[in-house]
Design a protein that fits this description.
Elements (H helix, E strand, L loop, with lengths): L2 E2 L2 H23 L4 E7 L3 H16 L3 E7 L5 H13 L5 E4 L9 H7 L11 H8 L8 H11 L9 E5 L6 H10 L3 E5 L6 H5 L4 E4 L17 E4 L3 E4 L5 E4 L12 E2 L6 H21 L11
Parallel strand pairs: 1-11, 2-3, 2-4, 5-6, 5-7, 7-8, 8-11
Antiparallel strand pairs: 9-10
Helix pairs in contact: 1-9, 2-9, 6-7, 6-9
Bound molecules: nicotinamide-adenine-dinucleotide.
Length: 296
């Protein structure tokens, strides 16, 4: 019988466990760990994600400060805001909600964030650290995937892991984290040939393609652990909007374990953002010298 891995339950446990750390920090410094959230434009999905992140911060006493702008905000003005947030000693985490409008170069914006405040783990310094196995701030979704896997896998060494998707925010960092744990990792993408055959070799399968129901039951080896990162908005048989993953969930009876969508990786991503914010606050306050852009 397949085990359904509840990301909702694990995220609640992680979030609860941060409460005390948050209150100790606030007692010591006079203000709680603080996350600045930057939202440009009115993308409906981004609005939902930002609302959820801010709601979870409030639950454990983390302070979040919202910076909302219309979609015509200039790149220069956004860079100016990032510079001010970098300098502000009472801001510990900076989250720029993606996607940004097309006239703003997202890479330039993410590169401008102080790596010590980069709670999304997207800054090249943190990406570089991840690639050499020297952990800075990890990207939240891959970190959440690993926590879910760690609750099930006793020994990662030599396990065959297949990752579907090679994006910078999910596929590549998940692959690096699995490699770090000594898995034998295969990264696949939309041009990979014989994808079902490759997937059938997986003891651990992480799917981040953005393609509803892509992974069918007969692609999955009996006993495999399946982490479904996909979030796809579809319409159900009664015409109602529905969120589904990249895995045909109802065909996974023979898998060892599978994450549901919703209620799997999604809540873990937010929990990991809170973990990173508390970690950033602690790290920043343990630095006596002024915070430089490149942590030396
Ligand atoms: P992306 O579009 O940047 O990358 C998708 C990757 O999947 C690409 O490498 C592409 O080559 C590959 N791909 C697409 N279709 C494929 C196919 N048919 N076969 C094989 N490979 C295929 O997407 P992303 O940002 O990595 O996000 C992937 C999915 O994960 C999306 O549904 C997104 O909404 C979801 N997501 C969820 C969370 C979360 O917190 N749960 C976080 C980030 C992304």
């Amino acid at each position: 019988m397949v085990e359904i891995i509840s990301g909702t339950a694990m995220a609640a446990t992680i979030t609860d466990s941060l409460r005390e750390e948050v209150s100790l920090f606030a007692g010591e410094h006079g203000y709680p760990p603080t996350l600045a959230v930057v939202l440009v434009g009115d993308d409906p999905a981004s609005q939902i994600y930002v609302r959820r992140k801010i709601g979870q911060c409030a639950k454990i006493g983390l302070r979040s400060i919202e910076h909302r702008f219309s979609r015509d905000l200039s790149e220069a003005d956004l860079l100016g805001l990032i510079a001010r947030l970098n300098e502000d000693p009472e801001v510990h985490g900076i989250l720029v909600q993606l996607p940004l409008p097309a006239h703003i170069d997202s890479h330039m914006i993410l590169d401008a964030i102080n790596p010590l405040k980069d709670v999304d783990g997207f800054h090249p310094v943190n990406v570089g650290r991840l690639s050499i196995g020297n952990r800075g701030l990890l990207p939240c979704t891959p970190m959440g995937c690993m926590m879910l896997l760690e609750s099930l896998v006793v020994d990662f060494r030599g396990k065959k892991a297949v990752v579907i998707g090679k994006s910078n925010i999910v596929g590549k960092p998940v692959a690096l984290l699995l490699l770090e744990r000594e898995c034998t990792v295969t990264v696949t993408h939309r041009y990979t040939e014989n994808l079902p055959e490759i997937v059938r070799t997986a003891d651990i399968l992480v799917v981040a393609a953005g393609s509803p129901g892509l992974v069918r039951g007969d692609w999955v080896k009996p006993g495999a652990i399946v982490i479904d990162v996909g979030i796809n908005r579809t319409i159900d048989g009664d015409g109602r909007p529905k969120i589904v993953g990249d895995v045909a969930f109802e065909e996974m009876d023979h898998a060892g374990a599978v994450t549901p969508v919703p209620g799997g990786v999604g809540p873990m991503t937010i929990a990991c953002l809170l973990v990173n914010t508390v970690k950033a606050a602690t790290t920043l306050n343990s630095h006596c010298e002024p915070i430089s852009l490149v942590d030396g």
